[in-house]
Amino acid sequence: PLVDTKEMFKKAYEGHYAVGAFNVNNMEIIQGIVEAAIQEKAPLILQVSAGARKYAKHIYLTKLVEAAVEDTGLPICLHLDHGADFEICKDCVDGGFTSVMIDGSKYPFEENIELTKRVVDYAHSKGVVVEAELGKLAGVEDAVKVAAKDATYTDPDQAVEFVERTGCDSLAIAIGTSHGAYKFKGKPELDFARLEKITNMLPGYPLVLHGASTVIPSFVEECNKYGGKLDGAQGVPEDMLLKAGTFGVCKINIDTDLRLAMTASIRKYFTEHPGDFDPRQYLGPAREAIKAMVAHKMRDVLNCSGK
Ligand code: G3H
Ligand code: 13P
Ligand code: ZN
Ligand code: NA
């Protein structure tokens, strides 16, 4: 069945691990991820961005995820990633999602609270859970200066007030991660002191880490080896993600590593089989590459295999 995240997060919190939330855009991506979850007996969140809905259409993505549930019997959470306004959240709540994110992080504190509360009230009336975001994910910078950190990273006191006043079910926080393949110029660093403080001030409460791909070096090397140009791509090291899961972090978002796994596989395939032109010939191995990468994440990084 399609499920929400309440039970998943409760178990993840108590077990000191995290559930992977993987962005989906087409059938091969969905199938690769789902096959990994079956193999690893792992909990699973599939998430859909506004860009994904624009690319593939809401109906195709929801039907594909429903097909995955029907085909496998796996409990899967279908989540809206980065909902920008009330309307897109309402649309997804009404359209069968079991979880939505309202991302009001670009607004001032009071406006973020007001918008989030409005989404929470609607979603909860329909039995759907809500993720919100407080703080701004860092851009590509060396070590962010202390003053800049306080301006953009999540403030622990504000986090407590935000959760109390909005009633959101989980909270995405900024501690130094960022979206995409270029997360750090210098040495990767996350603000674990801040994560620990937020965890202690919100005991039992599930936190979410966005921008948490590792930008797995072997995929970057493979892309570059077969004609790509991804210079200086760098992500969050695996040991840091494993550590984040031992704190309040219950959901870790992964999109970039899916893109890299798929692209590395396809680049290699094209170079080695220049005469092939049937999409199944290169999308098949790409799906396998996604499955292997996701299984590795579940086992070695999220620590959610068998949970
Ligand atoms: O948060 C960003 C996710 O990677 C989704 O990206 O908006 O290009 O689909 P997208
Ligand atoms: P990555 O770009 O690090 O994969 O982050 C994805 C994400 O946070 C989706 O919301
Ligand atoms: Zn994100
Ligand atoms: Na955790």
Q: Explain this structure to me?
A:
- The chain is α/β, with parallel strands linked by helices and 307 residues long.
- It has a single domain, classed as TIM Barrel.
- It is 51% helix and 13% strand.
- It is built from 13 helices and eight strands.
- It has helices at 6-15, 27-40, 50-56, 58-72, 86-94, 109-125, 146-152, 156-166, 192-201, 217-225, 238-246, 256-272, 279-301; strands at 19-23, 44-48, 76-83, 99-102, 129-134, 170-173, 207-209, 249-254.
- The protein has an eight-stranded parallel barrel with strand order 1-2-3-4-5-6-7-8, surrounded by nine helices.
- Helix 9 links the parallel strand 6 (170-173) and strand 7 (207-209).
- The radius of gyration is 19 Å and the shape is globular.
- It starts with 5 loop residues before the first helix and ends in a 6-residue tail after the last helix.
- It binds glyceraldehyde-3-phosphate, 1,3-dihydroxyacetonephosphate (13P), zinc ion and sodium ion.
